[in-house]
């Protein structure tokens, strides 16, 4: 049996959704050949998965921003997938183009599990060419997405308000997809020998204090590093994509703690078995599934608003004092020894 698992974006979703799903499908189909389809650095992650036999990776060139070029590229990708004659195609992605491609494969007779476009491909293309598709259509998955997972409709609602103590991978895979398996967010790693040599016996802390969203920026990172180093801690930070994924994971595996803002780095830490101390900002620590969290900074903190601060406080919830954060990290390091 040949199985294709799809999750393209983003990197954190590949780590927290696609990685455990590959373990689940290996349990369900022990003798199957499992292929993973992912995007850019997600490709590197899945290359390291012990239960994945092959990986198909695509890059930015295969996913143009404009609709019609993207449709052409994904139709070509669909033809490549169809030629491999998979017995089961599982789409865990919620972005439009993967759902579009999965619908095209479904319409040609492939067995599909997961998410797909809620209308036939030719009908969608006709409407798009006639200008009948609003731009907001692509921004709202509930407008275009259907699923074989019976409870996926829950994903379209503010579920975190109903289950505030549930992490995103648990909600998506256990509630929406109804998998009852253990969620293994882990990959085999070896402690990076170069990093261990540089640390020379000192405890190692990784720091990821900048993300793409405007609020994902801890302004006091230099002072935090200075305070940690004054207590004999070796600090490192290199999460800009310049290192191979295997090296990044091995460096995290050699680290005793990761201090991070809410980015995909947190999930890389989980893959490598490195606990995180999170500066969560407006996001709930429970939703992020972190091991440790900085103290709450404001009464309005866990509002889930990432684009702008509804209280117009310029995300004061990210303003943890460096000394307080350093003390918390040192306490965690002491507990780990």
Describe the structure.
α1 (11-28) packs parallel to α2, α3 crosses α4 (96-107) and α11 packs across α12. The protein folds into two domains: 2-146, Glycogen Phosphorylase B (Rossmann fold); 194-336, 3-Layer(aba) Sandwich (Rossmann fold). The chain has helices at 11-28, 41-47, 67-83, 96-107, 121-129, 141-144, 159-162, 168-176, 193-199, 221-229, 245-253, 265-272, 285-288, 322-336, and strands at residues 2-6, 33-39, 54-58, 88-91, 112-117, 145-147, 204-208, 234-236, 257-260, 276-278, 292-293. The mean pLDDT is 93. The chain has 14 helices and eleven strands. With 337 residues, it is an alpha/beta fold. The chain has a six-stranded mixed β-sheet. It has a five-stranded parallel β-sheet with strand order 8-7-9-10-11, with helices on both faces.
List keywords for this structure.
14 helices, globular, single chain, 337 residues, 11 strands, 14% strand, alpha/beta, Rossmann fold
List the helices and strands and how they pair.
Elements: E1 2-6, H1 11-28, E2 33-39, H2 41-47, E3 54-58, H3 67-83, E4 88-91, H4 96-107, E5 112-117, H5 121-129, H6 141-144, E6 145-147, H7 159-162, H8 168-176, H9 193-199, E7 204-208, H10 221-229, E8 234-236, H11 245-253, E9 257-260, H12 265-272, E10 276-278, H13 285-288, E11 292-293, H14 322-336
Parallel strand pairs: 1-2, 1-4, 2-3, 4-5, 7-8, 7-9, 9-10, 10-11
Antiparallel strand pairs: 5-6
Helix pairs in contact: 1-2, 1-8, 1-12, 3-4, 10-14, 11-12
């Amino acid at each position: 049996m040949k199985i294709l698992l799809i999750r393209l974006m983003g990197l954190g979703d590949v780590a927290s959704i696609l990685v455990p799903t590959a373990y689940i499908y290996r349990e369900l189909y022990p003798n199957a050949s499992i292929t993973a389809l992912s995007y850019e650095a997600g490709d590197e992650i899945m290359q390291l998965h012990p239960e994945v036999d092959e990986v198909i990776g695509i890059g930015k060139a295969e996913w143009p921003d404009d609709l019609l070029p993207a449709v052409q590229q994904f139709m070509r990708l669909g033809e490549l997938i169809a030629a491999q004659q998979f017995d089961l195609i599982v789409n865990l992605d919620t972005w439009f183009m993967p759902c579009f491609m999965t619908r095209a494969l479904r319409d040609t007779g492939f067995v599909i599990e997961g998410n797909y476009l809620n209308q036939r491909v030719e009908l969608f293309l006709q409407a798009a060419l006639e200008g009948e598709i609003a731009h907001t259509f692509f921004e709202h998955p509930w407008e275009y997405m259907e699923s074989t997972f019976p409870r996926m409709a829950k994903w379209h609602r503010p579920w975190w308000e109903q289950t505030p103590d549930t992490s995103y991978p648990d909600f998506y895979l256990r509630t929406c997809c109804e998998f009852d398996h253990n969620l293994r967010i882990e990959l085999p790693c070896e402690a990076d020998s170069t990093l261990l040599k540089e640390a020379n016996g000192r405890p190692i802390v990784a720091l990821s204090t900048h993300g793409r969203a405007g609020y994902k920026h801890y302004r006091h990172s230099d002072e935090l590093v200075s305070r940690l180093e004054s207590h004999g801690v070796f600090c490192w930070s290199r999460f800009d994509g310049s290192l191979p994924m295997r090296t990044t994971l091995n460096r995290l595996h050699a680290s005793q703690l990761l201090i991070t803002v809410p980015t995909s780095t947190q999930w890389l830490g989980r893959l490598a078995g490195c606990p995180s101390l999170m500066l969560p900002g407006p996001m709930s620590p429970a939703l992020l599934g972190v091991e440790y969290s900085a103290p709450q900074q404001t009464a309005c903190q866990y509002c889930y608003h990432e684009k702008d601060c509804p209280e117009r406080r310029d995300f004061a919830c990210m303003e943890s004092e460096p000394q307080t954060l350093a003390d918390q990290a040192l306490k965690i390091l002491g507990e780990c020894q």
